[in-house]
Amino acid sequence: MASSYSTDLKLELMVTGENAGTWGDITNTNLNILQQAIAGYQTVAVNATTGYTLTLTNGAISDGKNAVLQFTGTPTTNINILVPDGIEKTYFVDNQITHGTNTVTLKTTSGTGIKLAQGNKYTVYSDATNVNLVQMYPVWRAVTTTATVQPGSAILANTATASFTITLPASPATGDIVSFVDAGYTFSTKPLTIGRNSSNIANTAADLVINTQGAGFTLVYSGDATVGWTYTNK
Q1: What is the average pLDDT across 72-100?
Q2: Fewer CB atoms inside 10 A, N or C side of the chain?
Q3: pTM to 2 decimals?
Q4: What are the structural domains of the chain?
């Protein structure tokens, strides 16, 4: 009887009496795969138009088996990063992708997942059907010019040079948040505009202009199309 492979990490499961003279090499490979799953770190560059599919190869070291994944790249369209269906695994994710106006979704091939925010870090798990969020670690990001942000973004907006617009995520989900701080203490003379991106803000179908010096606030999407984005604090 030939070897089989474990469902999630694709470890080679040897049959008694098989692989005489080679079982030691196979065992070492299995141990290295376990090391990857416990402590492995890898940087993965995503394709600008097709995203990326993590690999979990039978009996071999492969990127999808790592504990920690750092994603890099500059997409030119909305992309997905895919965990193969049927895999149960926890990942720590460091998102260093430069999004521009594009979304990056970490999901299973056939199921659902989460949208990543530029610069943020995440703990997620795949339950073999979907990718689920355990915790998001927002990383404050300095912005000095017009930008479109993703759910979970924490923005240090500095309008010292000129006013500009930060556009909220398109098609937000209930509970999506975006935070803003007047990093240059210049909103009173050079206001920041929050572009609504087709969703209401605070019960109004209009962009939000912030002209209070030192303002700091968080918007959360209410799930109600009439209310739209509303304040958790301001």
Answers
A1: 98
A2: N
A3: 0.91
A4: 4-137 (no CATH), 140-233 (2.60.120.640)
